[in-house]
Please model this.
Amino acid sequence: MQRTVNRVAAIHDLSGFGRSSLSVVIPILSTMGVEVCAVPTAVLSSHTDIEGYAFLDLTDYLEEHINHWRKLGIEFDCIYSGFLGSPRQIKIVSKFIDDFSSNNPLVVIDPVMADNGMLYSTMTMEMVTQMRELIKKADIITPNFTEAAFLLDEEYNLDITEKEVKNWLVRLSEMGPKIVIITSVPEPDLSKNTSVIAYNREDGHFWKVRCVYIPAHYPGTGDIFASVIVGSILQKDSLPIALDRGVQFITAAIRATYGTEYPVKEGVLLERVLGNLKLPILVSSYEVLD
Ligand code: PXL
Model:
């Protein structure tokens, strides 16, 4: 049966406070006209950057959750995973992809593990090793610059050249995914600025979208960016337009937040900008790299 609305299995944690993971994935994809079926990997009182958070790992529960869906014979247009709570969970996601792939869904893996050169507090090197296995099954991966370095076992070096980043993209795509999108790539010539650089192995193209610098580091922006990419690709936008959409949305969200007295750890004011997702891309700024 042809579905009227695309359906995504969203495998992420539910962090109650601080606007990350399912708390942003669901509103973004719903606004973009996508049905979200959540697979909650863990429940936290907040993301892990807020001291004293409560954490319930749902690894033991997940099989039951997924088994019910197996019995129902549910199909998905996309399987989209993010923050995973334990090494065993990575194996469960891998099996989920195998079991729910008969209709060839788009598989998007955001290897949420680290930022600013450091692993998040719940992550281990064992999880990094397993993530290298999991991304073999992805069509698209969206690591940030730190996660790309961990996946490739490369040094986190902010002086990286564009040529080296292209080499990283190609090597990551050789691990499995057709499309690799690295966010927060440093721009050594423009200190503090970053860009998003992507590679599509199927047509050999590299794309770049520059990000304006705003001196605040909000949590959840990686989840927001990856969710917009998922919604955009599902609505059949091209890869460079999806990148533009992701960067423009994040920029609007950060601009709506920065300059208010809002505490950075509470995330961006998503509620103020969600409606932007309904607008067409009026000005595009992607560059083609050769
Ligand atoms: O935004 C990524 C993310 C997702 N889930 C949890 C996190 C983080 C980043 O800190 O802590 C629980």
Notes: The pocket of PXL is lined by residues 13, 15, 20-21, 44, 47-49, 83, 112, 120, 219-220, 222-223 (CB under 6 Å). Residues 6-288 form a domain with the UDP-N-acetylmuramoyl-L-alanine:D-glutamate ligase fold (CATH 3.40.1190.20). The chain has nine helices and twelve strands.
